[in-house]
Amino acid sequence: REDTFKRAEMCSSLSSIKDNPPPPLLELTEEGCAVVAPHKGQLHRARVTDSTSATTLTVQFVDIGDSATLPRHDVRILPENFANEPAFAVRCHIDVIPSTTPAQLRQ
Predict the structure, then answer these.
(1) For position 7, what pLDDT does the model report?
(2) What pTM value is reported for the model?
(3) What is the DSSP string of 26-85?
């Protein structure tokens, strides 16, 4: 329950970045880089998982577990004050259910 409150507080704080955003990641970026990126109308913490495209970045949202490929101009370096809180999402696997990719789940 405390984590739910902390996550909501984090999302609210990240929204304040819209007023004074860091510069976009237009140049090549290393995989694993901590970023802030939009997802379903809100800004979320994420890490870069694919940076091979000159125009897009693939990120995994560390607090909700989802991933997306976004235009580079929508992705920003994560301000340092948001990097101290550990990720809220936890990767897990249930043994009796076969592994699926996000694309398979959307079918």
Answers:
(1) 65
(2) 0.70
(3) -S---TT-EEEEEETTEEEEEEEEE--SSSEEEEEETTT--EEEEEGGG-EEPPGGGSSS
